[in-house]
Amino acid sequence: MKKSLLGTLLLSSLAFGAGFMSMVDTKDLHIMLSSEKVLSEGDNTIVVELNRDGHGGDVVVAKDVRIKFFMPEMPGMPYMESKDICKKVGSNFECKINFSMNGTWQYQIFIKDDKGVDYKERGSVNLGHASNHDHSHHNH
User: How high is the pLDDT of residue 18?
Assistant: First the structure.
């Protein structure tokens, strides 16, 4: 069992290459954030793909997609954030994000879908690391 799961994870990250990928599933919307390169300090382009009923389902052409990345205030460091209103590019959306330093950044994504339904989802990314398969079944 473990071998096949590891093989699947390995294949999915190899198929994507050296970039970044994070997925969030709601009850009826599959949200995938990705980047051709590993996220790093400075300017980054993040692609947001929206589908119904899981990855590969019907493409959702949302009315509004906004994203905010932030790092909470820590001793000796102020709160930092970078946000953007994503622009439609083909059937996906693109956001320009500037990370002021490496480390773990939280994100919130705000979506108004094609039916006018609002979604607000969250996750986190680690700069300088390849795909973050952050699903809620991790042991914390």
Answer: 56
User: Comparing C-alpha atoms, which of 76, 134, 130 is closest to residue 107?
Assistant: 134
Which pTM does this prediction carry? 0.76
Residues of the chain short of pLDDT 70, as ranges, are: 1-18, 128-140
For 103-112, the pLDDT digits (tens) are 999 999 999 9
Sheet holding 87-89, edge to edge: 20-25, 30-35, 42-51, 92-99, 87-89
Can you tell me the distance from the alpha carbon of 12 to that of 97, in angstroms, rounded to the nearest whole number?
25
Give Cα separations from 82 to 58, 70, 72 (angstroms). 30, 6, 12
Burial class (CB in 10 A: 0-12, 13-18, 19+), 48: buried
CA distances from 11 to 47, 73, 92, 131 (A): 21, 37, 24, 12
pLDDT, residue 17, reads 53
Q: Which of 40, 50, 23 is nearest to 122 (CA)?
A: 23
Decide if 108 contacts 122 (C-beta within 8 A): yes
